[in-house]
Amino acid sequence: MKRVVLTVVAGALIGMYGTAFAEEVARTAEIVVEETEDVKAVQERKESSYAKTVITRKEMEELGGQTAADVLRRLPRIYFTGPPTKNKDVRMSGLDKEFQSVLIDGNRPPGGGEKREFALDRIPIEQIERIEVLKNPTAAYDSDAVAGIVNIILKEPLKARSLYLFAGTSMNDLTNGKFGNKLSANYGDSFGPLNYTIGGTRNDEYWQKGKIAQDTGKNEREVEVERTRTLTSSLNLGLALQLGKEDRVIFKPFLTEQTETKFKEKPITVLSTGANKSKNVENEEKEMLLQSYALAWEHRFPGGSSLKLQGLYSENEEKKDKSTAQFTGAALTLSKNIFEIEDKEDSDVVAAADLKVPLAGPFETEHVLSAGLKLRDKEREVNREVREVSSTGVVTVTSTPSDSYRVKETIGAIYLMDEAALTDKFILTPGLRVELTDGEYVTSGGNAASGNFTDWNPSLHALYKLGWGVQLRGSLARTIARPAFKDKVPTRSVKKDKVEEGNPDLNAAISYNFEAGIEKYLGKSGVVAVNGFYKDIDDVIEKQRIGIDAVSGLPVERPVNAGEATVKGVDFEVKSGLDFIGLNDLSLTGTYTIMTSEVTDPNTGVTRKLKDIPGNMGTVVLRYDSRKLGLAASLGVNYTGKKEDETDPAKPKKEDAFTQWDLSFTQRLVAGVSLYGSAVNFLNEKKRKADGTRTEVEEAGRTFYAGLRFEL
N or C: which terminus of the chain has fewer CB atoms within 10 Å of its end residue's CB? Predict the structure, then answer.
């Protein structure tokens, strides 16, 4: 089947380029310019040759979002893991964190976790111009995007004067009346050929969660309280200098700093008697600083061709200082203190060139031929030290040389793509992207490994306009998921109950993604869509126990390529005004996704689901927007179905379905000034999990936001 796919795509490429270089023509702009952001976003989605969803700044503000993550959870096939209401690590198509790609202005930022994920709560919505979501990438995007791409576009340099101010407060009802505060400002204007924008946000927020767990097998009851203060500051600058009619230079620095201070107390008692058994008290401070500097030159040639050269330097520094006091026995006597210090440094240097050439083909066809080169040099260094101090003052270093490591990866890419309008109704976009990866992986103890590989990733996107606002879409693409950083490092760490090892021989997971759907556009800003998807994934990476260690006698756990997996499902989506039933100021947005997955364990031969994939998920948002009253309000509900983890058949893990309700409103007070408010998880829904004989209930309470906006 996969050879057939490659043959079809290769044939399409050859067919498109056989006579593509006939004659240059100027492609007519097809996107209809309308008065509202919502209309522009829907029209851009409609006219795009590949499937994508656009989220506007207005939509972000009206839906009560504080960060990019708060808005993305409203889209089909997307959910977030973690405690209730905390949206950090995005999951698309139910797949784990390493399967999706988060981009900032088209480039992957450094500073993710071990699985290369990026926490979306670090980017406030005030610094975002728009968000683009792609379920299947074209050849113009990096290939490590099995589940999809989230591309966050930061504020662009403005051609007209604009001023935005926001001042607000927040409160979580579990934090005993502690109020947060948020200040944000953005100003943009033009000065001759120079357009610019500058903005900053400071958000100081308090949050708390609680968890109660019972384990009948261990006869234990655990009550955990975690209090967090998160201070996020960001600065965004955009400069665009127009040099004549043909040339434009753009400089976009972006900085975001986040300090997270966390206190956690976890007492454990005997379930049957209530007697004390142990208690942990944790204090942790984590500081993260991301800075990015992008410089681009754009040149337009006669005939409509364009060339873009881009250079980017970005780095992320993360420092964690954590202490844990452990108490044991009925009297909760101090047993030991554990001190952990971890420093992470990530940096990326990117150089890229992209060329677009409009051409006339045979039989009155029109083409936009794209080609590009990209070189990405990435370095990551992690230094970790753990010390234990006993109650008598004896100091023991428990970290090992395997806990600190260095990774260097150089990724070179070249792509070729054609957006071919074969008729006024049929657009075909074939492409091929080739990526070469060269990596070095070293522990602080001197264990080293290296490897290089080449990926040939074809893609094909098709759009057919039936008329009457009805369109058919289809696509296929070969994508990859690179292993987690530390998984490739040749580490070895002996724990109390197991030996953990890295695996330098890991291959990237490879996926063949198929998408097909039908869309019906309703007026200028409405759409109804059904989309089916199928992902055939080879070399899925999972941690498994592979045998018994000859030295320690403990089981050995190692990340391995665990064979083949499939993920398939269908999305339903609707976005429409309700004026057809006489409710002119109301609109409805709804999504529903049904998914299933399958993976065969290479050791046991047992077929099971991929871990943590919900069987279904959905969202409904009812929006009210009255220009006459100056009031915009929304009521939203997010539903994530039950999730299961059958990795260990002896201890199946389950998480019940979770539903979250949110409210938000914006009321215009006078021209340019509006009052904003929202309530997140206002019904205080809780998450419930089961792990063998252990059950737990986790809650994060309700969070309320209020503030004033000023726009000029």
Answer: N
Backbone φ and ψ for 44, nearest 5 degrees, come out as -65, -40
User: φ and ψ at 653, to 5 degrees?
Assistant: -110, 140
The tokens of 671 are what? 């021209």
Q: Would the pLDDT of 30 be above 60?
A: no
Compute CA 403 distance to the chain's CA centroid, rounded to the nearest angstrom: 26
The DSSP H or E segment spanning 699 is strand 694-699
Q: What is the helix (H) or strand (E) element at residue 45, kind and residue range?
A: helix 37-47
154: which 2 tokens? 């930061």
pLDDT of residue 35: 56
Its pTM surpasses 0.70:
yes
Rounded to whole angstroms, the Cα distance separating 484 from 472 reads 37
Bridge partners (DSSP) of residue 328 are 278, 333
Are 590 and 621 a contacting pair, CB within 8 Å?
yes
What would the pLDDT profile of 347-406 be if each residue is shown by its tens digit? 999 999 999 999 998 888 999 999 999 999 999 999 999 999 999 999 999 888 888 999
Q: Residue 312: helix, strand or coil by DSSP? A: strand
- The H or E element that residue 13 is part of is helix 2-17
Q: Taking the CB of residue 282, how many other CB atoms lie within 10 A of it? A: 18
Taking residue 211's Cβ as centre, other Cβ atoms within 10 Å add up to: 20
- Cβ-count burial of 469 within 10 angstroms (0-12 exposed, 13-18 middle, 19+ buried)? middle
pLDDT digits (tens, 9 = 90+) for 344-356: 999 999 999 999 9
- Helix, strand, coil fractions of the chain, as percent rounded to 5: 10, 65, 30
Instruction: List own/partner pairs for 684-691 with CB under 8 A and 24 or more apart.
Output: 684/173, 685/84, 685/658, 685/659, 685/660, 685/661, 686/84, 687/83, 687/84, 687/655, 687/656, 687/658, 688/655, 688/656, 689/653, 689/654, 689/655, 689/656, 690/653, 690/654, 690/655, 691/651, 691/653, 691/654
Alpha-carbon dihedral sign for residues 546, 447, 118, 261? positive
Burial 359-383 (b: 16+ CB within 10 A, else e): bbbeeebbbbbbbbebebebbbbbe
Q: pLDDT digit string (tens) for 605-632?
A: 778 888 778 889 999 999 998 988 999 9
How far apart are alpha carbons 279 and 335 in whole angstroms? 10
Max Cα–Cα distance, the chain, nearest Å: 87
Average pLDDT, the chain: 88
Beta strands in 216-243 (DSSP E): 220-243
The end-to-end CA distance of the chain, in Å, is 57
Write the secondary structure of 423-482 as one string of H (helix), E (strand) and C (coil): CCCEEEEEEEEEEEEEEEEEECCCCEEEEEEEEEEEEEEEEEEEECCEEEEEEEEEEEEC
Q: Which amino acid is at 645?
A: D
Q: Check the CA dihedral 118-104-262-691 and report its sign.
A: negative
pLDDT at 32 over 70: no
Mapping DSSP to helix (H, G, I), strand (E, B) and coil, where does residue 58 land? helix
Concatenating the DSSP letter of every residue in 559-616 gives: EEE---EEEEEEEEEEEEEEGGGTEEEEEEEEEEEEEEEEEE-TTT--EEPPTT--SE
> In whole angstroms, how far apart are CA 135 and each of 41, 101, 141, 706?
17, 11, 12, 34
- Give the DSSP letter of residue 127: G
Q: What angle do CA 67, 72, 78 make, to 5 degrees?
A: 140
Q: What are the structure tokens assigned to 312, written together? A: 């980017």
Which residues are registered as beta bridge partners of 372?
Answer: 354, 415
Query: Identity (one letter) of the amino acid at 65?
Result: G
Smallest CA-to-CA distance from 81 within 559, 653, 524 is with 653
